[in-house]
Amino acid sequence: MIKKCLFPVAGYGTRFLPATKAMPKEMLPILDKPLVQYGVEEAVAAGLTEIGFVTGRGKRSIEDHFDVSYELEHQIAGTGKEQALAGIRELIDQCTFSYTRQINMRGLGDAILKGRTIIGDEPFAVVLADDLCLGADDGAGDGVLKQMVGLYNQFRCSIVAIEEVPADQTHAYGVIAGEAISDQLYRVTDMVEKPAPDKAPSNLAIIGRYILTPDIFELIEATPPGKNGELQITDALLAQAKRGCVMAYKFSGRRFDCGSVGGYVEATNYYYQKKYGGGVEQ
Length: 282
Ligand code: G1P
Hints:
Elements: E1 4-8, E2 29-30, E3 33-34, H1 35-45, E4 50-55, H2 60-65, H3 70-76, H4 86-94, E5 96-101, H5 108-114, H6 116-119, E6 124-127, E7 131-134, H7 144-155, E8 158-164, E9 174-180, E10 185-193, E11 204-212, H8 216-221, H9 233-243, E12 246-250, E13 254-257, H10 261-276
Parallel strand pairs: 1-4, 1-6, 4-5, 8-12
Antiparallel strand pairs: 2-3, 6-11, 7-13, 8-11, 9-10, 9-11, 10-12
The structure holds 1-O-phosphono-alpha-D-glucopyranose.
1-O-phosphono-alpha-D-glucopyranose (G1P) is lined by residues 108, 128, 131, 173-174, 193, 205-208, 232, 234.
């Protein structure tokens, strides 16, 4: 059973400067809810209630978000505004939250390795909160993590979520090659971090949802720095794929790249339309 979900949140969010100068990119709201809360809700919907954050300097507001705010809650107690906090309170009640710090930004592989102290020796999920994922059937069906947990229970190996991207976008993603097992599932044979279009093994890009088996930690430790001199989870996963099995899953649903201004605006418009239709927020 997978119970733990790791959120690497130490990154600087440079694509969103100056908004992220003093504020974590994971706290940017889509409508009235921060990105990281959408991620935790997706984890809880998949049955993962032990939430771990690999955090860093300037990220304190994430910890405060997943805690009570006595003064504020006292002020609005008994008023109509109390209802606005019902969702986050319920989420907090369902989860435990653990925090560890990544001192130096040495890449996603390093961030995940820092999470070992929270994860221990069990399979776990990883969510990159700036990838906002809507589940199957326009969000009415299973979330992406829930779909992946179901696959993990079947295959018992690491799984990365993938989607097709235009060839000129491969440089922004880890890209896989694999043998198709079904329409939505591949057994990974190759993986390259942020390849130029002519070096990309396919147009199947990894998005920010992973399920990892705990042997990944030793593999990260044995992985030399890769693209941009950083420790890449993609390289460690390729080693895992060569020695055993890694699956790539073309998920059902939709993903918004909320680490970019364009994707963020697209998500905002989409969720606004979904929540308020043609109408205006009251
Ligand atoms: C990271 C990973 C990359 C993956 C991407 C998904 O890159 O290194 O393999 O495709 O997340 O969002 P980043 O976006 O942090 O540069």
